[in-house]
Amino acid sequence: MLKEQTPDELDEEFDSFPTSKGSDLVRWRYDRLRNVAAKVQTVMGDVASQGERLQALLSWRDPRATAVFLTFCLVAAAVLYSTPISTACSSFRVLCNEASQVSW
Fold first, then answer.
1. Chain segment 13-48, per-residue pLDDT in tens
2. 53-62 burial, b if ≥16 CB within 10 A, otherwise e?
């Protein structure tokens, strides 16, 4: 999703170096940059946490969680192998229709 550039952002892009703007505007730009960097750092931390969990799951560091995961995978594989594709698709369609008709 792209958004249009605001006049402030364009002014920042075309500003000379060193800046010719006042210190309040520079402080505002710096604060905006810090906020964006904090959001990026938070998302990257979440991605790293999920990656560590997946790596621990697949490297047998937590035997109980790995056993539960493998059991779930085997059951899901058996169900998907034994269920005809037309039945699976029609049941999925029914579930989607029921979910869309629920009023909160």
1. 667 777 777 778 778 888 888 999 999 999 999 999
2. eeeeeeeeee
- pTM for this predicted structure: 0.51
What are the structure tokens assigned to 63, written together? 């035997």
Q: Is the pLDDT confidence value at 51 over 50?
A: yes
CA distance 17 to 13: 10
The residue assigned the tokens 């931390």 is 45
C-alpha pair distances (Å), 13 with each of 8, 28, 60, 70, 98: 9, 14, 50, 52, 51
CA 31 distance to own-chain centroid: 25
The separation between the first and the last C-alpha atoms of the chain, rounded to the nearest angstrom, is 29
Residues 64 and 78: their CA atoms lie apart, in Å, by 21
Residue 96: pLDDT band (50, 70, 90) is low
List, in order, residues 6 or more apart from 52 with CB less than 8 Å away. Answer: none
